[in-house]
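Why do we bother with holo predictions? Because pocket geometry can differ from the apo form. Keep that in mind while you read this record for (6S)-5,6,7,8-tetrahydrofolate.
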Amino acid sequence: MLVGELINASRSSIARAIEAGDREAILAAAQSQADAGVDFIDVNAGVFVGREAEYLRWLVEAVQSEAPLACCLDSPDPDALAAALGVHRGTPMINSISMESERLNGLLPLIAGTDFKVIALCMSDAGMPVSADDRLTVADDLINTLVRNGVALENIYVDPLVQPVSLDGNFGAAFLDAVREIMIRFEGVHTICGLSNISYGLPGRRLLNRLFAVMAVANGLDGLILDPLDPRMMAFVTAAATLAGRDEFCENYLNAFRGGKLDV
Ligand code: THG
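The structure, written out:
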């Protein structure tokens, strides 16, 4: 399951398009990611404090102005999510709920009993997780809370939270251990992550991001938030999914080969 990350107001070209009301630029960014094969288009207007709800809703309208491309609504703010949900067509993904009590209580009423896909981020009032065990504890709480509130296990995407390996040499291994354990212990649930945090503070970031994607898929991860316009990343992820047993009859791999997408 792939989520395209490019419509994020932390990117200057997107911030400019939002402020200029340039619907065509947003639509083009959405269409190119959909053409690259993503399942959801992430939309994030978090840098616009005070106007996030208004801008997130506008982003959804822009992304869906030609075709009802499904959005991954990327905000911790219930008001912004409610505004975006008010105009979204089809089944959205919510990015993300966590065990932080304010966020949990704000978002649960929007999510309970729906068939939305929900990213469950492994953060709690205790802060950021350090070890694999920290991540397992929060994942357990989140999964149980969501299921008790009428969210199907199959619609939950646990994000164990990638942290920079430059800050603590064990952060990569702790994340990978958590993915493997979550996928074994909670059969039927999904896992997902963003990649760029792993390489924060280091040179050669794209190399680290691509290899970490492969390692995460090898450990059972079945969702990624990524830049789908990076052809090497896409080739690596396609090959990794095939090698990890997630590509029946190697169909996706062979299609990518025939489309010239593996020659990168
Ligand atoms: N988990 C979940 N959601 C997430 C993240 C995650 N949403 C946001 C983020 N992480 C994923 N999205 C992006 C979007 C854009 C960029 C990175 C991640 C990006 N990065 C450039 C880079 O890395 O070189 C430059 C960033 C900049 O301009 O400063 O563009 O982990 N659930």
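Residues 5, 8, 10-11, 74, 95-96, 119, 121, 159, 162, 193-194, 196-197, 225 surround (6S)-5,6,7,8-tetrahydrofolate (CB under 6 Å).
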